[in-house]
Amino acid sequence: MTKVHILDEIKRTAAANSGVALGQQKFASETGIKKHDWFGKYWSRWSDALVEAGFHPNQLTPAHDKTDLLEKYAKLALELGRLPGPGDLRLKRRADLEFPSHSTFDARLGPKSVLVGQLLEFCRGRSGYQDVIRLCEAYVPRMRDVPDESEAGEQEIGFVYLIKSGRFHKIGKSNAAGRREYELAIQLPEKPATIHVIRTDDPAGIEAYWHKRFATKRKNGEWFALAAADVAAFKRRQFM
Hints:
The protein is of the alpha+beta class and 240 residues long.
């Protein structure tokens, strides 16, 4: 495998890719030229090979900042007059290629039941988002916002949720994500916001675990005075 051949292949594949040089892995899959064919023989880095072929080194796409994602989601909600769903995110992406993909929102912000809690906190600290705040406060998570029960076989799946009302958080359980939160929304003077939902085959046991873990911060019943680190610990769990 000669250097000239590799450089020619870099140029050829770049021409077929609208003039943009391929990344190392894509180049290898397209040409069959593996890293061992050039590494330590002609170049120590793939970027050096690209420069010698006459291209700028490829830059990694930076991860989207959560604040930026929440702002884009909030603006789309204002545009639509409702909280966007996966289909809305896909359509927006088609119309605006600079808009993040729906998978980016899922990866960075989690399922909609989790995203809405973060969106509410984001909008409360900024002007111009009163309509989005109302949409968030009226939102009740649906079963489709959490993984399908069929993924767990024959086990009965329930949910342990963390909601916030005023300065306090409530940790409770339910057999249907959103049902208990909806009931509480009717009872409380300040509408609760869903922060996170954990899917579990043992809702009673997992609820008891979190109640015990935060026992020193219990205020009344299932209500707790949680710190930001406590909330972050709860939000890291998707299934227990």
